[in-house]
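Box 4.2: Ligand-aware structure prediction
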Amino acid sequence: MTNTVQPNRSNADCRAALTTAKRIVVKIGSRLIAESPAGRPAGIADQVVALQQSGHEVIVVSSGAIALGIRRLRLPARPTDLPGLQAAAAVGQSRLMQAWEHAFGAHDRAIGQVLLTHDDLGDRRRFLSARLTLRALLDQGVIPIINENDTVATDEIKFGDNDQLAALVCNLVSADLLVILTDVEGVRDATGVRMPVVFDIEREAAPVAGGSSKDGVGSGGMASKVSSARIVTRTGVPAVVAPGREPRVLIDICKGLDVGTLFVPGDSVLSSRKHWIAYGAKPAGKLIVDAGAVRAMVSQGKSLLPAGITAVEGDFDAGDTVSVYDDQAHEIARGLAAYGAGDLRKIQRLQSAAIEATLGFKSLDEAIHRDDLVVL
Ligand code: GLU
């Protein structure tokens, strides 16, 4: 399933639809914070408060902890080792929150610091509990300021400057719009001209997004922004990659003006739960399947049966998220395994009727039930 092209809709129509967005996640990158550690949060806070006054709810995802920590510790360069990055994040996070506290304090608005790791969002119970916390904050008019919990994250610290976190937060809070503020005017096409609207991410944006960047201030780059747009548009939520230095950028986007690059959601929309299966949890293992199983899942929307599995990799329990690969090493789907890895190894290639005789029990005919399966 990919985003379908919607040739009949104009940029203006799609922009006008943004005016009805109530709950907005705004992500600010490290570079924007680092170039103006007090001024940038102040400018964003002015806009967020104006949006609140006109009935919007705003959740801020702010990077900048590592960048401000590097500055405070007077390091000559960005650390290359994980403990060094984590130490910088620990120092910088409190500075970052001071800046946000000051910016929103000027409007007498309370903020709440929320630090999340991908593991928090990958565990369904913790995901649901974080959702309740964020709802409680929003109900009280508090502006959540979210960052990745870099001091305890392991490989997570390498995620693209919170772009992916912001996309997952959109699903967490059921946002209507994601705005990723960056230091350029939007996604540029091959000739360097801003693309005002993208309907088909794979065809239009992915080829011009380039790779990821690590430049001493932040990490991420346009590719990671495009990949966040891919994640949110799959739940039917639009995303705008926009110039964070423009003083009215958030207001203008919510007015439906032509700012940045708008990613329009396609027709194939995932429920929040399926979205979480596809993007929230890190797969704990792999199932390699034959061509018949790929056809059944992709073209017919069917469950994955043990008979179609040719190999089981990794160590996972029933209920864990697993990736499904074809025999050419392409990831086809993700889903919740109905059996643990050990049991699946025993019943791979077997018809459903033979499951009970082999295992001594049977919970399901399927290895992944279609309700728990998302074709990518
Ligand atoms: N969460 C990190 C921060 O706030 C990400 C930025 C980076 O990788 O430099 O600093």
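In the box above, the bound molecule is glutamic acid. Confidence is low (pLDDT under 50) at residues 1-5.
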